[in-house]
Amino acid sequence: MNSTPAPPAGAANQPVSPATSTVGNTAGTPANATAPPGRTLASLEFAVTTLFQEPLDSPLMRALRRNGCLHFMHLLSYNENELLALKYDAPVIDQYGVDTGQTQLTQLERPHRGTVRALLGYAYLRQNVHCDPITPINCMHIDVQAFLNYQCSGDFIVFNNSSLPQPLVSKPDHRTPADSFQKSLKLDPDTYPTLNTDEEWDSFHRTFCSTARVHDTLNVLDHSYVPKSVDERDLFQKQQAFMYTIFLHKLQTNTNKSLVRKYQVNFDAQQIWAELSNHCTTSAVADMQASDLMTWLTTKRLVKSDWTGKHYAFVLYWLEQACTYNEVATDKMADSQLRILLRNAVQPTTCLRQLQNNSRLLSAQTGKSLTYLQYIELVKQTALQHDKAMEGKTTPSGNRQALLRDSYNQDHDYINDYATPDFDLDTDRRTIEAFQASSRRPTRPRLDNATWQQLDDQARRAWHQLPDAAKAIILKGTSSNPPPGPCAA
Predict the structure, then answer these.
(1) Whether 138 contacts 145, CB under 8 Å
(2) 3-state SS of 454-477?
(3) Using CA atoms, how far apart are residues 419 and 398, in angstroms rounded to an integer?
(4) Closest Cα to residue 191, out of 117, 259, 243?
(5) Whole-prediction pTM value?
(6) Could you give the CA distance from residue 89 to residue 61 in angstroms, rounded to a whole number?
(7) Contact, 322 vs 338, CB < 8 A?
(8) Cα–Cα distance measured from residue 218 to residue 130, given in angstroms and rounded to the nearest whole number
(9) β-pair partners for 87
(10) What Å distances lie between residue 240 and 142, 190, 364, 430, CA to CA?
(11) Which residues of 390-426 are buried (b: 16+ CB within 10 A; e: fewer)?
(12) Of 355, 351, 350, 328, residue with least CA distance to 339
């Protein structure tokens, strides 16, 4: 067993107080006052006592000092082989456990070497993953808890068991948010709806905002949004340019086109949207739309001349128009008013009229009236049950048209009128009103079916060529009594 005499008091392997710390000079030359913190003995003591939580006279500190390690930057320079070579002067203990006063060189234990390696791995993580490298300036400001957490993490396990360590987390993308937005963007105006008239604002607004959310451009549609950081401003500029292009293609009314041209210099899509929203919801246009909606809500009924679709679709359509009215109108309608209007709208239908009678009876028995929301649910359920019961009972339109064509083919317009559209929730209100206007046209003069069947093709063609006024005169003559014969002399 090789042994060496115990070092004299004050030897170099004893702890050195910060007041007498030296840097890179074993002769005791005072440290340079301008040296960065990472090149002072205090930084090494910080690593050992604060990060490693070891005393200054620990085997680790003695091994580092014996190996010439004088500061934090020296500590980061060790590789695995050099850590294995670290030794310290350990006291020799006899068989009775008594210190003999002698020392022997002993390899630094593995836990101590692992602690130093943990610091190397943490420095690697800070540099390559967090993009926050440890420097000679900030090395004494390392967060202790963050370092301890790293020692228990999978990142350190990978680092400690790899010759070429790779962190468990991927290296972050250094692209700015604006770069990421530009790279992921696919400019396709067709994904957005077109605003052809101001009356389409409600459905246009709903679809447009939904699409903008997918494209992560809702900030442009928020008039109060103001970007703060440089990255946010760069991103917002690109979002503005993108949405301006969309507005250029999709805002087709004269007012909207003038808005787009107004901001063609600075591409301020945010202001375009703010003014467009104001125009469609608070201006005279909104008042006219509210007036039209009120007319529709108070006059339309669930009858064939007003609605050709299913009962449930009518109820949903009516509720959507009511919701739109309350969004654009200055004076909102209360639930009690809406309930009365809905009741009047469905009153012509037997099953829904019976629902009203049942609800009155229920209210009389319980002493509580149904709320508007409860009434809506009952109307929906009743309409669904009616539609379900009517499935398969209606002759397909093609068969009906063929039957009409065979039996009463004297007026092609009549056949076209009979092929009515099937309204649903997506039907535009103008389409419904156009159908209602056409269904109110006066009935054209027609021959009865028995007479029509007696005519040959030439006579039928001659009938088609007659103006309606002439047909009316002929039909009037056939329906009246024949003129009296000449008087007898």
Answers:
(1) no
(2) HCCHHHHHHHHHCCHHHHHHHHHH
(3) 9
(4) 243
(5) 0.43
(6) 11
(7) yes
(8) 30
(9) 107
(10) 41, 18, 59, 33
(11) eeeeeeeeeeeeeeeeeebebbeeebeeeeeeebeee
(12) 355
Number of other residues whose CB lies within 10 A of the CB of residue 10: 7
How many helices and strands in the chain, by DSSP H and E? 23, 2
Residue 267: which residues within 8 A CB-CB, separation 6 or more? 240, 241, 244
- Give the number of residues written for the chain: 489
pLDDT above 70 as % of the chain: 75
- Give exposure, 342-364, as e/b (b: 16+ Cβ within 10 Å): bbbbbeebeebeebbeebeeeee
Whole-number pLDDT of residue 94: 83
Predicted pLDDT at 442: 58
Q: What is the pLDDT of residue 250?
A: 92
**Residue-level pLDDT at 5:** 44
| pLDDT value of residue 169 | 47
- Residues facing 99 on adjacent strands: 93
Separation between Cα atoms, residue 489 and residue 483, nearest integer Å? 18
pLDDT of residue 478: 56
> Which residue from 336, 302, 342, 303 is spatially nearest to 322, judged by alpha carbons?
342
**409 neighbors 446 (Cβ within 8 angstroms):** no
The residue assigned the tokens 């109820």 is 315
CB atoms within 10 A of CB 438: 11
Find the helix packing angle between 284-299 and 269-282, rounded to 10°.
50
Strand partners for 90: 104
What percentage of residues in the chain have a pLDDT greater than 90? 26
Which residue, among 74, 73, 165, 82, has the nearest Cα to 125 in the 3D structure? 165
From residue 313, give the alpha-carbon distance in Å to each of 305, 347, 385, 423, 424: 15, 16, 12, 8, 5
Query: Mean pLDDT by 10-residue block, N- to C-terminus, for the chain (489 residues)?
Result: 43 40 42 77 94 93 92 91 90 84 89 92 89 92 93 88 56 62 69 87 88 89 91 90 92 91 92 91 77 86 79 88 83 89 87 80 79 89 87 54 45 43 62 60 70 83 82 69 46
The answer to whether the CB of 178 falls within 8 A of the CB of 237 is: yes
Integer Cα distance of 77 and 120 in angstroms? 8
E strand or H helix at 101: strand 99-107
The answer to whether 321 and 296 have CB atoms below 8 angstroms apart is: yes
**Helical ranges in 176-309 per DSSP H:** 177-184, 201-214, 230-250, 254-262, 269-282, 284-299
- The CA radius of gyration of the chain, in Å to the nearest whole number, is 45
